[in-house]
UniProtKB/TrEMBL annotation:
Residue ranges of domain ABC transmembrane type-1 in the record: 66-291
Main location: membrane
Listed name of the protein: N-acetylglucosamine transport system permease protein
Bilayer topology: Multi-pass membrane protein
Family from the record: Belongs to the binding-protein-dependent transport system permease family.
Spans through the membrane: 70-93, 113-134, 170-190, 225-244, 270-292
InterPro entries registered for this protein in UniProt: ABC_transporter_permease, MetI-like, MetI-like_sf
Keyword field: Cell membrane, Membrane, Transmembrane, Transmembrane helix, Transport
GO terms under biological process: transmembrane transport
Keyword Transmembrane helix among UniProt keywords: yes
Organism: Micromonospora pisi
Amino acid sequence: MRHGKYPFVIGFLAAPVLLYSVFVIAPYAQAFQISMTNWRGLSAPQWVGFDNYRQLVEDHRFWQAIQHHLVLLIALPLITIAIALFFSFMLNVAGKSSGGQRTGVWGSKFYRVVFFFPQVLAVAIIAVLFQTVYRPNESGLINGVLMKIGLDPILFLVNPNIALWSILGVLVWQAVGFYVVLFSAGIASIPGEIYEAAEMDGASRVTLFFRVTLPLLWDTLQVAWVYLGIAAFDAFAVVAVLSVDNGGPDGATTVLALEIYRNAFTYSKYGYASAMGVALFFLTITFAVFTLRVTKRESVEY
């Protein structure tokens, strides 16, 4: 049996690895190849070397998109994790102790369903819903209330100073529910005896959160930060549906995925779009590796 395990493992993994190579690795490799050409989709591609990458350096829209990603890269994980941590703590630990087990606040089971609800909706549907929320007239959910009390409407998606933040709000609203569930699962794995010992020492709920829950959830937080960072490098569907003129006004909400789509399917510049895709690939990988190294801590055993 010992000598036969390697053929068994190889045979078991052969089909998944083959499928992954064909449908994931091969398209990535092809994107690298196309990025070195001036292919426009119909004519034969011509090799141009690094010309597309030189053009990227001089492209204002590319750097504008990078700036927006930096904003999302900082704000999206911070806000989402902070809100999700608070809710998951309230739903799992902040209530009274029952039979030696920590419980959440009253109605916590109902709140779990409410918070998770956005996860069952497609991203495009969420964006369409927020078109109604952000509508700049009386039919808008927010501006309708503001106008009824005599206030001027807020141009959420038209004002370039707040358009990106308005889209950030949608991304946070859509993501919080998943991370509430993720952190709740992490909190559930923490032995109740640790909380009981801390309470016997006079720890308040705030102390329990910062001295017990947060350190013991660090690995989960690390994973959440990486996932949310990857989401910040995407945001294509929300921006495409909500933004004015696909990334407007005046490019105030554009992201790299939208610029890739625009160059490929509007301008037929597939080589240049592939170069943007390669840049996005390396930015995402760099962020993930950097985050995992910076946030690395010794594992806590309990």
